[in-house]
Structure formats: C-alpha cells, structure tokens
Amino acid sequence: MEELIISIDNLKEIARELFNNDCRVIGTTAENKFKVIDDPEQLILNPNSVPTGSSFKEFFFPKTEPLFFYKQNNSSIDLIDPVIDKSRIVVIGAKPCDAAALPIISKVFNWDYKDDLFNTRNDNSLIIGMSCHYNDEFCFCNDVGGSPENRKGSDVFLKPLADNYFKAASVTPKGEAFIKEYQKYFEKDLGKNKPLVRKEENPNHFDYDKVKTWLDNNFENKFWDTAGEMCLGCAQCAFVCPTCHCFDIVDEQNGSCAGRRAKNWDACQFSLFTKHASGHNPRDNQEKRYRQRISHKFKYYNDKFDEILCTGCGRCSRGCPVSLDILQIVEEINSLSQKSNAI
Amino acid sequence: MNELKQICKDALSEKKARFIIGYKEDKNKRIKPFIAKTPEDAEQLTFNHHAVNNLAVYLPRFKNNVEGKIGIVVKSCDLKAVTALIQENQIKRDDLFIIGVNCSGVVLDIAKEFNKDNTQIKCKYCQAKTPPYYDALADESKDFEMPDDDQAELMAKIDKMTSDERLEFWNAEFEKCIKCYACRQVCPMCYCEKCIVEKSEPQWIDTSSTARGNFSWNIIRAFHMAGRCIGCHECERACPMGIPLTLLTRKMGMVASSEFGYRHGMSLTEPTLIGTYSTSDKEDFIK
Amino acid sequence: MEEKFEPKIAAFVCNWCTYTGADLAGTSRLKQEANARLIRVPCTGRIDPVFIIKAFENGADGVLISGCHPGDCHYNAGNFHARRRWILFKNLLDFIGIDSSRLYFSWVSASEGKKWVDIVDGVIDAVRAKGPFKQYKKMNKEIEIPVAAEEGVSVK
To answer: Which terminus of chain A has fewer CB atoms gathered within 10 Å of its CB, N or C?
Structure first.
C-alpha cells in the first residue's frame, strides 16, 4: 500500500466535514482537554503535550447515563427506553495510552452481559491515534505492554512530520475505509517532510511478570499496610483513568410518579463501594481498598481477561491530592519481588 | 530543615509523640504526606514551599485510637483546621503534639517552582506566617512578597452580577463536576462517617453527575462548610476538574464574619457558629 | 386563551405555631389561595436546607418557611438555631444565584391566622408574578423522559 501523509489543515477539513455530517468529533483544544469539537479551528494535535487531565472514556462510558425512565400510569408503570445516540464518534489525536484503553474495557463490557450502551458507541467510533513524544516521571506505557508508537485501539495512526504534516496509516479495516472515504484530503508521501523524532527513549521501570507473580502470592503482605496509608479515598484517580470502568446503578425521582434508573461512575476507593446492606464492609479500611485498586489493575483483570488494566498514562499520579504515585508503588512491588526471589 | 528533623527525631525518641504526620520528598522530588513512626523515619521529614497538603485531614482517623500523642507538622493555615477539630470535639488538644512551621507561602502548581505567580490563593491573604500556638516550632520562615488577591476581585465581580447571571456562572462551573468527592475527602472538616450524599433513604442528593445532582451536591457541601471552613483551599486544589470551590467557601466565611463576627478555628474554647445561637442575631428577611 | 400560571409552593411549617396558626385560619373560615402545600415539621430547627433544595428539585416554584416567633419556641431555642442557619443559607443562595424572590421566611404564631393568610397570599402572588422557576427546572432535563423516546412498556 502506498504511504500517505496529511496536513493539519486537511485534518481540520475532515473534522469540519464530519461535524457537518452530525458526527461527534472529539479532540483536544488549547486547554489540553478532550472535548466535542464544534469548531475545527480549535483542534490541536501536539505530540509533546502532557496527557489530558481526564481521559476520553466519558464519551464512550459517560459519567452518568439513563438505563430507562419510569412513569406511573394509573395502576401500572410505564418503562421507557432511553434514546441511544447512534451518531458516529471520531476521536482525533488520541495518545497511544488513551486509544489502548478502549479494547481493554471493551472486554469487561462484553463479558457475560453485552453492554449495548457502550457497544453502540464503540462500534460507531473511529479512533485516530497519534504517536506520543511526551515523557515525564509519571509515564510508564512501555512497562505495561504499550509504547509511544503503540497502535492498539487506533483505527488510523498518525506520526508527526515536519511542517505540521502527519504520516497516516490505517490499522484496522475501519480505518482503511475511513481513509478511502476521505481520500481527497490525503497526499502521497514523497519523503519531503522529515519525521519528528522523539528526544529520548522511555526508560523501563519494572518487569510486569515479576510484579504479577508477586501479586499472585502476596495478598496478605505487610507492604499493603503502608502502600495506601496516606490515601484519602477520593476517587479522582479512578475517574480520570482511561481504564477504570466500575459503575453504580441508582434510581432517581423527578417530581412525583416519574424518574429514571441511571448508571453512574463508581470507584473502589470509596468506602461505600463494598458496603453490604447488613452494614458489614469487607474492605473496611483504605489500605485494603488501595490493595484492591493495585490488584485489580495488575492482577485480577489479567487473570480474567488477559489484559493489564492500566495503560501507563500516569494521570492518576499527576492529579493525586496526596501525590500517591502508582508507578512508585509498582516499582516497590518489583523490587520486593526481586528480594523474595533472592531468598 | 534540620531543625524540623531534629525536633521530630527527639519527639519520637523521647516518646513525646507516638508517630508524626509530616511531609517527605519522594524520588521524583514531590512532597507528599508521610507518617514517621521511628526516629529513623524522622530523617525523611521535610518542609518547603511544596508542602501544600493540610495534614489535619488525617487526624479524625485516630479519634478512637489514641495511645500516646499524635505528632503533626502544621503551617499556620493547617493549625486552624486542628483548632477547629478540637472545637468540634473530633480530637483532644492533649492527644496532640503540634510541631508548627513558619511558612512563607506554598505553591499552586506542585510541578513548578514557587514564585509570585505560583502561589496558593490562601497565601495571598494569609495573616499569620507563624502558627499561633504549638508544642515545638521549626523556624523555616523567609520573607515573601504577597501577590495580589485576585480571588477577591473575582468575588466582587460575581457580587455585581444579576442572580440569573450568577446562576449561569455557577451552573457552568458545576457542570464540570464528576462527583469524585475529592473535595470532600481532602477536607479536614469533612469527617462525617456517613456523608449526606451517601444517605439513600431517602436519597437527599442525587449521586448522578447531572446538572441537578451536581448543583445540589455543591450547594449543600458549601452550606455544610459555612462558618466551618478554615480556608486551607485543599478542596480546590484536589478538584480534578478545576471548579473554583473556594469562592463559595470563602464567601461563606466572609458572611460568617460580617453577620456574626465569627471565624472558625481561631479559638480552642469558643463555641462553634452553627453549634450555638444568639437571641440577638440580626436579619431583615423574616416577615 | 392562555392558561394562567399557578405556582407550586412548598411550605415547611412548625407544628406548634405556624401549623396551628394555619389551622386557626381554616377554622376561622378565612379565605386563602390553595397553591401552598404544607409540610409539617416538629420545629423550624428540623428544617435542613436540603429540604429547600429538594423542594426546588421536585418542581416547587417557591418555598415558604415559617415557625414560632423568636422566644416562643416549644423547644426553647429551635428557631434561634434555625435563624442562624437561614442567614447563612440565604447568603449562599444569593451568591449562587437562586433568586431571593423564590424563598420566603416568616414567624407566624398559633393565634395569627390572619397573618398566615396574608403571608401565604402574598407569597403566592409574588411567585405567580415571577412565573415558573425555569432556571431551576432546566437542571432536571437529564432526568426527564426524553421527548424522542418511544412509548413505554407497561408493567403491572
């Protein structure tokens, strides 16, 4: 297949065309936030930018959404299905650590129950990924099976070139069809625009297999007494995370005799998360809840779905009010695993 | 800094404190909360412009678990939270070993150096660099130039708006809320074992992050802070969505001060504003 | 002809004074408008501001709160505590932008049937003149059944 390039202006043109065709175009703007783009001029693709404060999961798995509405109708109750927005979602300029999250959480949404709400959006989506040139002390994508060039989850993948050009390649059949659809905006790569290169390679921090083995055998380790000691139990880490997917189901009243049942984000760091109706709480302190967070990410999800529930974007650590750093915790586990091997 | 380490080391080895809640620097040079349990641990304790956390938030955890004193490193703003917790019977003064630090301002963005543009809002109107009382004081103070209090300007601007404009302003802010409750968890005064938003029979506040749920949550949170907020600005710092939460809590503090001449966390013995009343409270709206 | 807007008023009243006062208005056959729904609470000190928020959430166009005159509280100090709370809460609502013409407070004793009628009628007229509380009702949009939704399935 011939190699294609596209300019930022043409990408914006595609965004404009998509927007005019009732697509939801998601991209980052000057504030470095994922947003529904209504003005393509706002769109900014910067491979050097820090990952956005929140991931784009809210466009696939919203912070709150109705499952059904109810209304009393004399002696019976009417149940009304919500209107599912079937419009196409196109994410432009997702970092590899963002794009990789969708296939990961798709597994849990299609495990025993097929989640129509998530699937409808996921099936109607197209992810245009872009290689990442950012790296700071919180990034660790290459330790969890990713890389700044990882194409997992992307349908089309862009590599930044000089003069605001991008090398474009399709990753999936969906991506191929997309490039065909907007063929007129792509140009043949004549090698005029030099690729931008990453300043340095990302360092490796830990060996995932060792961490996993340690987690398999150390549920009761005293390490957990101090790991989450300073955690305050807010859930900003889970809510900004691209892969955290827990939700709660609640009923809400609107006036009398009507309301809705909704699905809302929830998080394992809340004490209420595991509290039984009896009042018993199996995870009754923050240390246990923090162990759950780490174990779910690096052990349980892998046991069940053969995926690490973390893409190494580092958002949780950047935003943590008490500067708990997930990478440092896993690095500690890594060094503990080496010590236990030595014995 | 050595002075702080020495004080803490002595306090731990002389058993003046069972442990000390303080700050340490991690390998990425970030300052984070840390509990020093042994004199050796005290080596790691530190304090500088990046020590933003209000450590008083950890105190209610030890309410029913006091054997020996709890050591805590506090700035003067954090000490107000400690005082308020004592006033509200959450902890006893006698159970604390307070290590005050002279503070000359803390950063707004922890990833950047401290300077005039990178200063917490609370420091812009801070009135006491030295904690008013303590069991030991580590002298770390340096003079610093107080930047302009731009939040007061914004507050005056909101005061001038019509009520519809104000509602629009706040709705746009509350729309960002994702109900992660970081504002609550990080607040030293939010120590309820069961928060009102977690009460489900009846469900007073929607847990959904809808316009309605966000509005109710934020307004009730602000009300529960009225006359109780000590102004550490931790809620706004913790908010991942950047909602200017302290505009509300600071405003309520100003109301408490103008209507009742009351400031929370200033006296160990004064009854709390909401816990008491006066027959001469003045208002003009009850018919 | 355009239908006349009839406001919904939630009135939280204390058991000992205002509720009894409202009862007196009834037994005295004083005429009053019927838009206010009375919710009887043991004391104004029982009124958590979350009640007011909940009333607005569920469609109230105005809220009226009434109890014993200062010094007359059945429990000695309930209304003094309440007054302090209201001063704070009213200032908060003002700052957030809830129109102060949606929320009313009064002291009505058990013998003031006439005062109760005047207050209720006054509040209803004022809120009727303001029209529906659209600004607050707008926030309910996500919880309302969407217009585009298809007919529901009935379950007994």
So the answer is: C
Burial code (b: 16+ CB inside 10 Å, e: under 16) for A237-260 equals bbbbbbbbbbbbebebbbeeebbb
How many DSSP H helices and E strands does chain A contain? 12, 12
Rounded-to-integer distance, Cα B205 and Cα B220, Å:
9
B158, A317, B286: which is closest to C103 by C-alpha? B286
Residue spans of the domains in chain C: they are: 9-143
Using CB atoms, pick whichever of A63, A321, A325 lies closest to residue B238.
A321
Could C139 and B210 be called an inter-chain contact, meaning their C-beta atoms sit closer than 8 Å?
A: yes
Task: Report d(CA B264, CA B270) in Å as an integer.
Answer: 9
Extract the tokens encoding A20: 């005019």
For residue A328, give the nearest of B36, B29, B40 by alpha carbon.
B29
Query: Chains A and B: how many Cβ contacts under 8 Å?
Result: 91
Task: Pick the closest to residue A219 from A280, A285, A295, A271 (CA basis).
Answer: A295
ipTM over 0.85: yes
Architecture of domain C9-143 in this structure: 3-Layer(aba) Sandwich (3.40)
> pLDDT 10s digit of each residue in chain A, 343 long?
678 999 999 999 999 999 999 999 999 988 889 999 988 888 999 999 999 999 999 999 999 999 999 998 888 999 999 888 889 999 999 999 999 999 999 999 999 899 999 999 999 999 999 999 999 999 999 999 999 999 999 999 999 998 889 999 999 999 999 999 999 999 888 888 888 888 778 889 999 999 999 999 999 999 999 998 999 999 999 999 999 999 999 998 887 788 999 999 999 999 899 999 898 999 999 999 999 999 999 999 999 999 999 999 999 999 999 999 999 999 999 999 887 665 5
